Amino acid sequence: MAIKLLIIFFLFPNVIYSAINGDQCVTNKGVRGICMGFYECQSAVNDYRLGIFPQLCQNSNKYTVCCPGNNKVPSNNINRINSQTRPSKQKCDEYSKIATNVSLFGGLSLGTFHTEKVETYTCELSISLIVGGEPAKANEFPHMAALGWRGLDRYEFNCGASLISDRYVLTAAHCEKWNGKLPDIVRLGDLDLRSNSDGVQEQDFPVEAFIRHENYDSRQKKNDIAVVRMRYNVRAWQKNIRPACLWSQQNINQNQVIATGYGSTGYAEGNSDKLLKVNLFVSNTYRCGEINIDNTQICAGDERNNRDTCQGDSGGPLQITLPNNKCTFYIVGITSFGENVCGYSNAVYTRVSAYIDWIERIVWG
After folding, report:
1. Average pLDDT, the chain
2. pLDDT at residue 273 above 80?
3. Residue 319: φ, ψ to 5°
4. Which parts of the sequence belong to the Peptidase S1 domain (predicted)?
5. How do 32-36 and 144-150 pair as beta strands?
């Protein structure tokens, strides 16, 4: 995590002198605003992360910014975030810092120099609008994992997974066995499973234990969730190997999600060696095509554009990012099952938030 110092002396024409929090101001674009602390103004934080310096107000003890319109961060959101003390939230905060640069945003105020920390994010995410999917870029999904079974001359990768700690990946319970055998390895950080010239350095970890949910029902396809413990810890995070966060809320606050996997690119086609990504839409119903689902499952797809997950994507993540941090992924679902004809109907995903306590008990208990 890099730290750099940006010194801004309040000597510019657009600085509003003798202002205090709550005073009215006008931005250099002619928009009326209110002077408030930098971190209280969402638009100022967003602009700064894009390299745009906010207009500054000034008072006797600290700097403030001219915040246009009603861009104040709701206090109830701040309190809710601070109240989340469960292990997965604490680990999420830790993992988010891996892809974060911290700058010291500072200036002079009546002869006194003040600084505050501002976080900027650096990652490779580039989502555009897997069946109907497109290849991912190097380092774009650093939590993506693949489960491999030892074959005659190479590993066969038949399920996906998500790195959620330095020792565990999250996957589907139905990935426990392939032809009666447990997976042999977890592969991390790979962009192309069959190529050594894809620009990334993958790492393989032997599987120590496959822990599926105790109430997994293979016939009803319920509680289709498992964690895999690797024999060794990941010793150091890399650009292409970094854990994702777990989404702990029942509701997903956006209807567009991202699915990734090494699965088939079409019906009756073989699995893809390349990591694919696709944008899907969440259906907020308890019916997924011809399938009835419950509140432990998610229905998602894009039937209009024939986009879907397919065979081989099983166990892989359904994920979102938040508007103020595109570098941290939240796993909202695990690819579970769908129709045989990929891309022509929505698929069913295990809802991660329904199993947060179970995951935390095993991974961080």
Report:
1. 79
2. yes
3. -140, 160
4. 130-364
5. unpaired
